[in-house]
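Suppose you are handed a protein chain with no further information: no name, no annotation, nothing but its sequence. What can you learn? This example shows the usual starting point.
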Amino acid sequence: MVDIIDEALDILHHTGPEFIGGSIHGPMAAEALLALGRPEAVLPWVERYKRRLTDHPTPAMPIPRAQWHEALGDIKRLADWIAFFDRELADAPWPDVVQHWVPVFAPGLMAAATHGLIRTSHAVRRLTTGETPQRRHELAEGLGYWAARYQGLPGRPADEDAGCSPPEALTHVHRVHGSGFTASGSIREAIAGLDTEPSFPPAINLVSTRGDLERFLSALTELFAGVYLTQTNGVIAFVHAVTAPSALRLLLPYLAEADARLAARYAWQACAALYAWYATTAEPFVTIHDQHTESSTTLIDRAISAEGAHTIKFTEACLREYGINPQPVYLLAAHDAAERVGVR
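A reasonable first move is to predict its three-dimensional structure. Written in structure tokens, the prediction is:
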């Protein structure tokens, strides 16, 4: 069991972080399957998934540490960024690399529809169980992808904020589109439309992260599990609105307190951006009072049967969040994903 993730990463080693249709999810879903306690499912799933992937890009020109700003957000430098972090991880312990670079990239947390953050967090979680060359390189892949697809959103944190909880704050986020809107294209390209929306920049300062940060992230994931259930448009976008803040939770132990609180503000901003662009109903979230009786085992079985990487990752995040904050909305969302998200 210990070596399964390394074998999976070896299989995927020569494939790139993207393919036609978006980001690849192979390493993340493989790690999530281990976290779900299903090691026997990892390699068969990876073998099926790899058939759709493209070759890994080749580095062209090293990125000097003193001039890294010049390559930020340049997808053509993706391979150079991954090589950059391979060097960083060769020169310093991986927790030090995470502590330094995650705050640097947090303002661009929307990178690749938040997949830079999510891939980084899956790599970090597996490194905590044991350090191997494959796992260090997977962290380089995550951080490099985050850097190459860096995408900032309009609005910057101010010293003063409105002090709202996430559910309260969401009622003040303006929805760009009405009920006739149908999502198309990549999330990255769509969200860039907020750059010209004057209503969006204040969103980042609606919430406060000065209190218990773990509870803040629970409130955020609970809220957006409910949002996911209310929306028929942009289903995959709202999956990310749960998996991204849940991914940030995995990185909190490696961040300075001030950096963690600021990153949580950017996580809220990313979720608010997804809501602003994709939500088409006035009701922002649902409240589930009745206990959902379906077992975690059944939910995991459903996710694996559906085979989709998003479904596997979303189910793992929902079950993990439920373990911290036992609200049935997570279980209902995980159940729904096997049907609505399916093989995607």
